[in-house]
């Protein structure tokens, strides 16, 4: 039997990895850790980035939430990242990583995560990120006007990945008002236990 551990924190990217593992009922042990704090030195050899998530299978480390999601999807049979739609899913994964979630996560960082030690954010910086967010949110909202899920008329990893920052929309002051298709889509995601509360029953 493979020894498989998923190390996580409660922040945006590890939250996605844990949600995938919970949704797929992946055979992993969940371990909360502090990759930038108490556990940093012990984990440097496994993840030199000092970031979460981290999947370790029989000692073999894998970082990056997307790679972990693909690995767990394949272990579960591939339906969550189906080969038939691999390119389309990758398109949204990249779009999330380079555009939509950069803006969303940027707002979460400035308005919420870094608040306690950096103080109130520079309004000019926040306005610039909001402008980016609106540019990409309009594209997502228009896409979702015609379909319930991003790829193949069914839930896939593309939906989890593009929605990465949205569970933090309230504290991060992500301006979702007016994007009714995005809000309805995220409501559909929140009907899935693993997405709404990935840390239920674990640390
Ligand atoms: N590109 C990486 C980003 C990983 C990352 O930035 N992780 C952040 C959380 S979102 C982290 O570990 N921060 C320190 C912490 O959560 O303690 C991925 O997608 O996995």
Structure description:
- This protein is of the alpha+beta class and 203 residues long.
- It folds into 2 domains: 4-80, Glutaredoxin (3-Layer(aba) Sandwich), CATH 3.40.30; 83-195, Glutathione S-transferase Yfyf (Class Pi), Chain A, domain 2.
- Helices cover 51% and strands 8% of the residues.
- It is built from 9 helices and 4 strands, in the order βαβαββααααααα.
- The protein has a 4-stranded mixed beta sheet, with helices on one face.
- A hairpin with a 2-residue loop joins β3 and β4 (60-63).
- The longest helix is centred in the middle third of the chain and has 28 residues, at 86-113.
- The protein is globular and about 50 Å long.
- The relative contact order is 0.15.
- The mean pLDDT is 98.
- Glutathione binds next to α1.
In quaternary terms, these chains amount to single chain
CATH architecture verdict of the largest domain: Up-down Bundle
Average residue pLDDT: 98
**Name of the CATH class of the largest domain:** Mainly Alpha
For the secondary structure, the number of strands is 4
The total count of helices amounts to 9
Strand-pairing-aware structural class: alpha+beta
Instruction: Please name the CATH topology of the largest domain.
Output: Glutathione S-transferase Yfyf (Class Pi), Chain A, domain 2
Please report the distance between the alpha carbons of the first and last residues. Answer: 24 Å
Work out the radius of gyration.
17 Å
Largest sheet: 4 strands, mixed
Helix content: 40-55%
Low-confidence stretches: none
Shape summary: globular
Beta fraction: 5-15%
Bound molecules: glutathione
In spatial order, strands of the major sheet run 2-1-3-4
- Write down the secondary-structure element order: EHEHEEHHHHHHH
